[in-house]
Amino acid sequence: MERRLLANECFLRRLKVGVSAVLLTSLILSGCSQGNGNKLEGKQGDNGKGASEEIGSTYPLNTTETISSWEVLDSNAVTFHADLADTPFGKALAKATGVNVKYIHPNEQQSKEQFNLMIASDELLDTVEYDWTGHSAGSYPGGPEKAISDGVILELNDIIDQYAPNLKKKLAANKELDKMVKTDSGKYYVFPMIRNSSGLVFRGPMIRKDWLDDLKLPVPTTIAEWETTLKAFKDQKGAKAPLSVTYTGGNFEIRDAFIGAYHTSNSFYIDDEGKVKYGPIDPQYKDFLTLFRKWFAEGLFDKDFALTDTKALDNKILTGQTGATVHQLSGGIGRWMDAMKEQDPKFNLVGTPYPTLNNGEVPFTGQLSFIYNPGPSKAITTSAKNPELVARWLDYAYSDEGAMLLNFGIEGESYVMENGAPVYTDLIKNNEKYSLQQMVSIYSKPNGPYEADGRRNWNTLPQQDEAVKVWSQTDAKKHTLPAFLTPTAEESKELGKIVMEVSNYKEEMFVKFIVGKEPMESYDQYVAQIKKMGIDRAIEIYQSALERYNKR
Questions:
Q1: What confidence tens digit (pLDDT) does each residue in 29-61 have?
Q2: Class of the CATH-defined domain 197-370+465-482
Q3: Given 3.30.70.100, 1.10.3720.10, 1.10.10.10, 3.40.190.10, which CATH number is that of 2-190+378-406?
Q4: Do the beta carbons of residue 144 and residue 134 sit within 8 Å?
């Protein structure tokens, strides 16, 4: 850690001095000999020019260096390759940028644990694609200010200003985005994933419509209707786990479906008065736990929910063990219906409204994302030996040419231009062996630091288009706490400790309450313990951060 802090201080000092090669050389030899050798401008060629002139500012860059990137490989791409570099996309990216990349892909289900091990080992890669916000269990504890002060990642203000003209242009053109991707003190910390405004809703509850039709049941909207439906799935369809969701890395992927029916959340949220709250200690959260404890005992909610990862859920959905879940448009409805179209042509999944307690209520919350997506965004670490090269490589994604590659893949192979618009080829959309989602995963980058193109649409079914409309009918915009609030460095240290302890305890008790190992009478003691851990202080910090964000 000390090595990283020295390197970070040394690098930032060099970057802000200017472009004089003589002065830079002097700084490197005299002032920065203790660091790890972050060589931004200091790398000299035989002609005496600095690194920027050596590498160039047009693509492909003039370099023989290899950089390293830590990022989860898309679950669909794993079907074909174990390394992004081996995919058609990875090869095309290397050719276009002139940069070879060594990718390290953590296991998707263990990314949090493997990220923590990487941080603890002090062996960071040049760039890391991860959630640095500190907002969720699977993000950097304490957020970006702490990650910078810890000497883990670099502040990017001068880097973006000098070496990322494409991203700089996008931030200047979109003030709301610019507001989202920096800290309250004005520090940029990632190359962001920028969502298209039409793609902000993509997850929600879904159900086997063919089963509902067989049973002559309506699409459920209330908790009572859901209970009736799940009982019918169990008793008349033989479903061993009528309702199931993934539960990995401390993330209960039901998100706020069902929980929101009780006007609370599974994490921090904003109440009707604009105040930050922590849902898992609300009195009404106990009502949700009581419901799912009952459903678990009655076999309506998956008995193995705590062990259900993506592969396990796939198996349960495709073998008829499960008739309802909470998942995504492409990775859920699209992928599962494609997999079953020949085996069971009647198989039909549709999106359902977020459940409420009473008919006609607007769901309290639901999935609604912001244009900045923190999870698939990349930071440059203090271990990067050539931060300029990493920045220029990342900035390619925000260029017009790079955007086409990351969004649509390789022209002539994965897409063609028709009437001025990109259209997927039959290799992608009508592949005899693989789904559209599988094919786009190796010819493009489904998620990552670039701007999603509004013309990109992976919906291949009317059920997907309809699901978006249904899932959009919530009050999520009012109650969702932005994931990119940035506490101060001091607040972050305090917040990181509190959130980590609270999250671990909350998840432990969550499972115990639902499976019946802890009596519901212990709920008040559970709340008291979380308060003892400092949750009120965490709420206070987030409230202050929210108010500062609103004033940016």
A1: 333 333 333 333 333 333 333 455 588 889 999
A2: alpha beta
A3: 3.40.190.10
A4: yes
